[in-house]
From TrEMBL:
Name of this protein: Peptidase A1 domain-containing protein
Keyword Protease among UniProt keywords: yes
A single cellular component GO annotation: extracellular region
Gene3D superfamilies for the chain: Acid Proteases (2.40.70.10)
Molecular function via GO: aspartic-type endopeptidase activity
Alphabetical list of PANTHER family matching this protein: EUKARYOTIC ASPARTYL PROTEASE FAMILY PROTEIN, EXPRESSED (PTHR47967:SF17), OS07G0603500 PROTEIN-RELATED (PTHR47967)
Taxonomic superkingdom: Eukaryota
Every Peptidase A1 domain range: 51-386
Gene: LOC127752970
One GO biological process term: proteolysis
Keywords from the named record: Aspartyl protease, Glycoprotein, Hydrolase, Protease, Signal
Length: 394
């Protein structure tokens, strides 16, 4: 399966900081009539269990690829000057070979906006350090032309020259969509974006839609819920899109939630969901009863519940998540029971106690988002969604 899921779980833990969120910069959209026609970015599933986009940087264009990270704070890629790099599937980006690359000098508003504890200037080159969902990175601040799907934009980005990342399974960096000034959606100035993730085993592209191309089919199937904000408890989660979970069912069985519900972090970097512990234990029990096979005594790491596929006789129930405002989202069993390896089926959910969080947080991972079209309206501050065949929207 490529990179072990256990590694992914460590990487997606909510200890990630949002220091890069303090950067203040806005890119300038150059194509698609300033997004009047919107833009479409094809994305694909990799064996490292991430959704990835291929794109180019610079003039003439150099190939790159990056994980699409819904909560990612910035756009970054490894550069040729990297002294401590992980392996990637494309050549390292060479800024000296791009006619449109501009290194950010020290003293500019962009450079000065980087918090002083992560900013480093030497030789009049603006440099930074940042924590990301993949690990800690350090690089130089630059701007260049990006061609991402049908969009072309001049973006500020991190030209990474050092990191503590072991591997990303091929991609050269991350394209962040988070609620931060350096993300792709903020820099391109779009009022909305959406994505529809095709099933990971379908062999089909998924799609990210930017600007006016981000729209749902409607037809009475769409539901909407407002974004919510949380603060305190030592967590800086301002980069995440968050909604409030107020009800959860497994088939006809009601799953207990905290009295105040649970704040759900929407995430595409983690393939696995995390539920508040009481809800997770109830889902785990309901799935075990429905599958009708004795669980494995020693589950495959990092899962808590696995079955031999050959012994499963029953059908696991759909899970129905109900968010604030009555917006109900159905997650089919095929989206949370992962046919992992060696004839083993595992529950692709875990307890949020593993996140070392002191708040009632849950996290909705990418596997549980498949075949649902999600629309993020940044003006209305709402999340809308509807069931869809995502293989037909790419």
């Amino acid at each position: 399966m490529g990179r072990p899921v256990a590694t992914l779980l460590v990487l997606c833990f909510i200890s990630v900081t949002a220091r890069a969120a303090a950067f203040r910069v806005h890119g300038r959209l150059l194509a698609d009539d300033a997004m009047e026609g919107g833009a479409v970015v094809p994305i694909h599933w990799t064996q490292a269990m991430n959704y990835v986009a291929n794109f180019t940087i610079g003039t003439p264009p150099q190939p790159a690829s990056a994980v699409i990270d819904l909560a990612g704070e910035l756009v970054w890629t490894q550069c040729k000057q990297c002294g401590r790099c992980f392996e990637q599937g494309t050549p390292l980006f060479d800024p000296t070979a791009s006619n449109t690359y501009r290194a950010e000098p020290c003293g500019t508003p962009l450079c000065e906006s980087i918090p002083s504890d992560v900013r480093n200037c030497s030789g009049n080159v603006c440099a930074y350090e940042a924590s990301t969902n993949a690990g800690d990175t350090g690089g130089k601040v630059g701007t260049d032309t990006f061609a991402v799907g049908t969009a072309k934009a001049s973006l500020a980005f991190g030209c990474v020259v050092a990191s503590d990342i072991d591997t990303m399974g091929g991609p050269s960096g991350i394209v962040g969509l988070g609620r931060t000034p350096w993300s792709l959606v903020t820099q391109t100035g779009v009022a909305a974006f959406s994505y529809c993730l095709a099933p990971h085993d379908a062999g089909k592209n998924s799609a990210l839609f930017l600007g006016s191309s981000a729209k749902l089919a409607g037809g009475g199937k769409a539901a909407s819920t407002p974004f919510v904000n949380i603060s305190g408890n030592g967590n800086d989660l301002s980069n995440y899109y968050k909604v409030q979970l107020e009800g959860l069912k497994a088939g006809d069985a009601m799953i207990p939630l905290p009295p105040s519900g649970s704040t759900v972090l929407l995430d595409t970097f983690s393939p696995i969901s995390f539920l508040v512990d009481g809800a997770y234990q109830a889902v785990k029990k309901a799935v075990t009863v429905a599958v009708g096979a004795p669980p494995m005594a020693t589950p495959v790491e990092p899962f808590d519940l696995c079955f031999p596929k050959s012994g499963a006789s029953g059908a696991a129930p759909d899970l129905v998540f109900t968010f604030r405002g009555g917006a109900a989202m159905t997650v089919a069993a095929s989206n949370y029971l992962l046919d992992y390896k060696n004839g083993t089926v595992c529950l692709a959910m875990l307890s949020s106690a593993r996140l070392n969080s002191t708040t009632e947080l849950s996290l909705l991972g990418s596997l549980q988002q498949e075949n649902i079209h999600f629309l993020f309206d940044l003006d209305k501050e709402t999340l809308s969604f509807e069931p869809a065949d995502c293989t037909k929207l790419s």
